[in-house]
Amino acid sequence: MAQYGPTVMVPIDVKKKPREQKVPLHNRWHPDIPPVAEAAVGDVFRVEMVDFSGGGITKEYSANDIKFADPFIVHYLSGPIRIVDKDGIPAKPGDLLVVEICNLGPLPGDEWGFTATFDRENGGGFLTDHFPAATKAIWYFEGIYAYSPHIPGVRFPGLTHPGIVGTAPSMELLNIWNERERQLVENGVESLKLCEVVHQRPMASLPTPKGCVLGKIQEGTPEWEKIAREAARTIPGRENGGNCDIKNLSRGSKIYLPVFVEGANLSTGDMHFSQGDGEVSFCGAIEMSGFLDLKCEIIRGGMKEYLTPMGPTPLHVNPIFEIGPVEPRFSEWLVFEGISVDESGRQHYLDATVAYKRAVLNAIDYLSKFGYSKEQAYLLLSCCPCEGRISGIVDAPNAMATLAIPTAIFDQDIRPKASKVPIGPRVVRKPDVLKCSYDGNLPTTTNLSSSSTS
């Protein structure tokens, strides 16, 4: 039976920057980043973490901190943690590491978070062509509930979860990542028609020493320079798990992670109080500082036993996730549909990304009829417990995606009625979310059939 209470601590001081932490943080994946702690199978151990920006986003009423943030440097991870069995034998490549989330929450005394969009010139988001300016909303926590002075009229329970849980890649796997992402960058937008519709940029974030944090490895040494030029960014989820942003991985969940290096070198970070499916504004959950109480098991040889490679090597596998029993309960939902026809009216073939973009845009425009600005609706759909689905993927030519919003999170009835939109008390338009001006030159999109631009 597990010992009561954490046996290992990986602590965080929220008043200190990532490089100043007593237990060093890292923001890259590399097999040679050394562990900062060791935990044994069956032990419950506590990991604390700063928000994804390393504490760089403030509670100040300004969006400038997010306008100039670099989203491709961030995700400061706590760890790596070496995992051993009861005999002290470490997890081995080919094993399956089972990570159970026993408990989690915001750090005591730091019960707040934020949701934001990055500037179009600096990463943007899913709808960056519609919403090019940096925005920010601050949320405060009351037990399990969140509310924001910047998005009034909503209150909802958080499904708290870590955005990132992953193991270290082997050098072979790291080389696979870097090569395929390098090809994507070199081929450019012209090779991928979807980029003309979703406007994501950059297409991938390749290794760079800029802003690199490598835990115990001392900056300026030859070892640091070598690893910094090889280590993968933490932005996308990959074969090792990583930034999967699965909102349902809360208390009682289990993550079955492939092991690629001795000891597994487990890392976690990017704590979210709440998130909607897709995290559409990119900085889109309620980002916060928090803690995780974890317990691990090792399934020897579990990769070959349970994970089937979907690629040219045995390393092309993906984790398995077991959802815990603790989730908010909602009985009534308003569901918005999208099909794979873009804003210009162009038909795409079974494209679920275009369909989901349409569903999100439809939901934003609808909520704006009830007193919300479109920026408020965009941030809300990124962090409230809404649910996204691929509802149809075989009926050519239209893929169909849906976005379901729980109606109980609003203090007004947002369902359509014969009496039309209510004219009684409504959400005031001020205060709005915190905004910056957009000063760049990248193209933006206007919905030609809408009464107002986004």
Automatic annotation (TrEMBL):
GO molecular function: hydrolase activity, acting on carbon-nitrogen (but not peptide) bonds, in linear amides
Pfam families named in the record: FmdA_AmdA (PF03069)
InterPro entries hit by this protein: FmdA_AmdA, FormamaseFmdA
NCBIfam families (alphabetical): FormamaseFmdA
Xref: PANTHER family: FORMAMIDASE, FORMAMIDASE C869.04-RELATED
Protein name: Formamidase
Organism (species): Cannabis sativa (Hemp)
Gene encoding the protein: LOC115713064
